[in-house]
Automatic annotation (TrEMBL):
This is Large ribosomal subunit protein uL24. It comes from Streptomyces millisiae. PROSITE patterns: RIBOSOMAL_L24 (PS01108). Residues 2-29 form the KOW domain. One of the proteins that surrounds the polypeptide exit tunnel on the outside of the subunit. One of two assembly initiator proteins, it binds directly to the 5'-end of the 23S rRNA, where it nucleates assembly of the 50S subunit. One of its GO terms (cellular component) is ribosome. Belongs to the universal ribosomal protein uL24 family. Keywords: Ribonucleoprotein, Ribosomal protein, RNA-binding, rRNA-binding. The keyword Ribosomal protein applies. It comes from the Bacteria. Signal peptide: none annotated. SUPFAM superfamilies: Translation proteins SH3-like domain. Part of the 50S ribosomal subunit.
Length: 107
């Protein structure tokens, strides 16, 4: 998967189109990523009490995973943030390096 944990991405389609955020978790087997502040859903959790006696539960708003095809990597070019596709190249030692297609720079 070309998007990794810690990358800055922008949503390119869906209800959160245009929003940017950092990738919190990548799920390569499902081709999904968890982006902070994007695809927020409400979860209803069962009410209960903790050991101290405080109430827990209710409605909690959290992020849900989004498909990796719906996000694009954001890189900085001339002081502006632009979206780009990701490619690969090999350095002299044979290590695989990610490359921003739009700018040609290493990521």
């Amino acid at each position: 998967m070309k998007i990794k944990k810690g990358d800055l991405v922008q949503v390119i389609t869906g209800k959160d189109k245009g929003k940017q955020g950092k990738v919190i978790v990548a799920y390569p087997r499902e081709d999904r990523v968890l982006v902070e502040g994007v695809n927020r859903v409400k979860k209803h959790t069962k009410a209960g009490t903790t050991a101290r006696g405080s109430k827990t539960g209710g409605i909690i708003t959290t992020e849900a995973p989004i498909h990796v095809s719906n996000v694009a990597l954001v890189v900085e070019k001339d002081g502006k943030k632009v979206t780009t596709r990701v490619g690969y190249r090999f350095d002299d030692n044979g290590n695989k390096i990610r490359v921003a297609r739009r700018t040609g720079e290493d990521i």
